[in-house]
Amino acid sequence: MFDEPVSDADNAGRAAAPGAGGTPRAARPPAARPARPATPRATGHSLDERKLAVLRAIVQDYVGTEEPVGSKALVERHNLGVSPATVRNDMATLEEDGYIQQPHTSAGRIPTDKGYRLFVDRLAEVKPMSPPERRAIRHFLDGAVDLDDVVARTVRLLAQLTRQVAVVQYPSLTRSTVRHVELVLLAPTKIMLVLITNTGRVEQRLVDCPSAVRESTLADLRVRLNARAGGRRFPDVPALVEDLPSSFEPADRPVVTTVLSTLFESLVEQNEERIMLAGTANLTRFGHDFPLTIQPVLEALEEQVVLLRLLGEAADGGMTVRIGRENEYEGLNSTSVVSVGYGSGDESVAKLGVIGPTRMDYPGTMGAVRAVARYVGQILAES
Amino acid sequence: MFDEPVSDADNAGRAAAPGAGGTPRAARPPAARPARPATPRATGHSLDERKLAVLRAIVQDYVGTEEPVGSKALVERHNLGVSPATVRNDMATLEEDGYIQQPHTSAGRIPTDKGYRLFVDRLAEVKPMSPPERRAIRHFLDGAVDLDDVVARTVRLLAQLTRQVAVVQYPSLTRSTVRHVELVLLAPTKIMLVLITNTGRVEQRLVDCPSAVRESTLADLRVRLNARAGGRRFPDVPALVEDLPSSFEPADRPVVTTVLSTLFESLVEQNEERIMLAGTANLTRFGHDFPLTIQPVLEALEEQVVLLRLLGEAADGGMTVRIGRENEYEGLNSTSVVSVGYGSGDESVAKLGVIGPTRMDYPGTMGAVRAVARYVGQILAES
DNA sequence: TTCTGGCACTCATCGGTGCAGAGTGCCAGC
DNA sequence: GCTGGCACTCTGCACCGATGAGTGCCAGAA
Question: Quick one: fold of A1-171+273-383?
Fold first, then answer.
C-alpha cells in the first residue's frame, strides 16, 4: 500500500526553496495521489495549503501532547485564521484520505502512518542543530581513543540527543581498505591472522594449518601479502592475491591456501556487521499501553540481524525515514526508524540511526541524526 | 540492615549433607539473629522446621504464580500435614520476624528480601541441569569461532535458559598472559601495537612516536619484547621489560619508551572491562506495575560501570546472590543478581551472571548460571 | 463557493455503590 | 499444640450516571 520510503538528499532541509516559503524539497513527487497533482487547490480533495497546515499542526500537537487533538484546541494553539468548524471540515477530508484517524468516535484525531509520511516528505524541515549543540557533539566525540570508543560514544550521544534508541553499525569492511596483514606463529600448525583496516579496526582469526609451518615461509608470505593487498579495498583483495600459492614451493602451498582462504573469510562481511545500541531506557517513554508495545521492540533490538536489515535498507548517502508499517519487521510496526550512512571521507562505510515511536519529533531527530553522522565521518577521516 | 550476601562454595547444592536431609550448606551462620541461634526449636521464634517449610512453600508458590499466597492454598498444594489455621499461625510468626509480608490486610503473603535470603541460604538447593540440557549447552557453545563469538553465544544461551537478563564480562586481561606482541609500522612515526592474549583476545593501539622509526629498530624491539613478555601474566610484564630501553641506542630510546608505555596502558584493565548482555526483552515479564519497575533497570543495564560493579562484587570462585536491596544500585532494588566467576583452567578470569526480579526461580537460575560458567571455562581452556 | 455559529449526538472518563471472594485473626475445644 | 469455626477486612469487578470533550451536520452569512 505504501510507496517506497523516501530518502532526502543531503542538501535538503536547509535550502529554503527559491520562491515562496512552502513546500521545500520535492523529495517525493506528489504523484501516487489519484487527482491531478500539479495545480494547488484543485478538485475534490487534492489537499490545499490549509489542509496541509492543519495536518502539520495535528502532527506537531500530537507529538507534543501524546493526546488526540481536537479542532478547538488546534485553532487555539496555532493561528490558522479560521474557525474550529472549518478545521473540522478539513479534518474530515484528511481522515477520508487516510492521513489522520480517530481512536474512537468523538475523540480528537491522531496522524496515521500515511499522515506522518506526508509530514516528513512535504511539511517538515530537518531542524539543524544549534551551534552550542554542534560544539557539544564535536567535543564529546573528540575524546574517543579508538574505534570501539568512537562507536560507543556516538551511540550514547545519539541516544541522549534524541532521547530515543540509537543504533550505530561498525564501519563495514566492504568499503574499507587493508592497512596491514600480520601473521603470527602461535604453534607449529597454528597461525594467528591479524587484519588491520584503514578505519582502525582489527580483525583476528585463528588458522589451523594442515602441516607444520616454517617461520621463513610465514615471513615470506607476510611480505608478499602486504605488498599486494596493502591499501587495497577488501573486495579487490582476493583477485590480487589469487596466484600467490603458485609462487611458493609445492610443500608450502597448502599452508598458503589455508591462510588465504581464512583471510577471504574475514573479508566477507558476515560477523563483521556488528552493531551497538543505546538508549533502550528511553523506550519507557513510549506510551501508556506499555508492555504490549515495548516487548516486541526489545525483542527486535536483540536481533542484530533485524537491526542490520533496518539500517541496511537505508539508501546510500541520504537519510531514510521508515514510518510504522513501512518497517518490514512486525515488532516495529509502531515505531519509526531514521537512518543515514556515515563514513570517513566522501563515501559511507556504515549506517547509524534512531528508533522511536511513530509519534516522534521527526525534524529534531533527523537533524540530530544528520549532524552526528557528519561529525563521526569527520572523526573517522581524521584518525 | 542486611548482612553480607553469601557466596556458596562450588561444591554446594549437590552434597546432600551427611545426616538428615534438611539444611544443606551452612553458607551463612545463623547468627545475626538476636535470639539464641544454636538450639533448634527454642524460645519465642527461632524458626522450627515447619515454619521453614512454610516459608519455602510460600517462596515456591509465589515464584510460580506471582500472586500473594494464602494459607489455604498452601496446604492444598504442599502436603504440610497441618491445617490452614496452623499455617496461619506460622505465617504470623514469619511475618513478625520479617521474612514475609502482606501487600494489604487480608491478602496472602509474599516473601521479603530477607525471606528470599533465608530461602537461598538454607532452604534451596542449586538445581543441576538435566543431561539433555547439559548437552544442549555444550553443543551451543562448541560452535563458537572466536572470543567475541564465545561471549555472544554464552550471553544468549544464559538469557534463554533462565529467561532473564544475562550479563557476561569479557575475560579480563589481568589474569591473562601475553601470547604475542606485534608491532607494525604504518607510517614513519606511527606504529600499530597489537597484543594477543592467551584467551584469544586481541587488543590494538595506535602509537604516535616522537621521531621517525626505523624498521630494523622495530624488528629488534619486537623480538626482545616477545622474548621477555611472551607467556607472562599481564601484571608481571612491566617489571620484565622495564630495562629494555637502555639496551637500545640512545637515539631509539624515546621510541622504545613510548611503545612500552602504550603497552602498559593497554595492559591496565580500564576499557578492557567490556560487557555483553542479552535478554532485555525478558524484562517485560517482570510484573504488572511495569513501567515503574523496568525503567530504572533498563537504565542500570546501560551503565557498564554499574554492571561491572555488580559482577565485580561476586566473590571469587563461588556463586553470589544479591537480593533486592542488597544491591547497592538503587535502580536494582527490586531485582536479584546471581553471578559467578568463570575461567579457563582453574582460575576465574571474568564473571557472568543473571539479573531478574527478586521473585525468581533461584535454584533453577543458580543451576543454569553455574553450568554455563563451567562450560564456558572448558571452552576457553580448550582454545 | 466557502466559512461560520449553533445544535444534537456520541463516547471515554471518573467517582460512587454494591456484591462476591479470598484471606486473615482470634477463640474455644480437642 | 493443633484444629475448626466465625466474624471481619479488604481488593476486584461490574454497574450506573454525570460530565465534558469532540464530532457531524445544517442553515445562514460573506
Answer: Beta-Lactamase (3.30.450)
